[in-house]
Amino acid sequence: MKVSVVTPVNNEEKILEENVRIISKYLDDNGIDFEHILVENGSTDNTLEIARKISARDSRIKVFQIPYRSLGMGLRTGFQNARGDFVVWYPIDMAIKIDYIKDSLRDIKDYDAVIASKDHPKTRLKRPFLRKLSSKIYNLLIRILFGIPFSDTQCVKTFRREPLQKILPEVKTNDINFEVELLYRAQKRGLKMIEYPVEIHDTRKSKVRPLDFIKTALKLFLLRLRV
Hints:
By secondary structure, the chain is α/β, with parallel strands linked by helices. The chain has helices spanning 16-29, 47-57, 71-81, 99-107, 129-146, 161-167, 178-188, 210-226; strands at 2-9, 33-41, 61-66, 86-89, 113-117, 124-126, 157-160, 193-197, 199-201. Strand 2, helix 2 (47-57) and strand 3 form a beta-alpha-beta unit. The model has no long low-confidence stretch (mean pLDDT 92).
């Protein structure tokens, strides 16, 4: 079993090298055959250069680059280039406890996807208030508009690669709502998915601005009209 860990990175020069090392060591210590796909997107610091140096030292670290900041396009690029039997979306800030990787790979055996949730009743969560509030409102809108049964669409995920790559061409969104359309298409395709609690320690300063949230909500409505 080979695992592809996909990590979009933007302006992460301060933590990139150390956290990639920690993730690699964790995977090695747990006997997981892996590739780690870093997708640099629109960084203005030395993130891309550092990523390439890491890759030069360890061929399991793969680097892709897109010229603008986009989590959605970063995930798409990583998913498309994954070669493992399973694909794990995991963030470079490691705000999600890293044991999620091992636990999700253990529990995905009966499913096509494990969908982690920051709002699962069993999730252990430490986040700034504005992040929690905006997340709850955003995911409520998604459940109303798309009928997606999960309490969160914007957290880490683990997929079987084969069904994931079959639905990717159907997903046309590349912005912040990429994961919403991905889960909507997966649900329509009948993929068997389970929602999963995680342990989160997210202390980064919130970047939520009212105007950004309004724009994101508008994009949700436009996506619903399209699909």
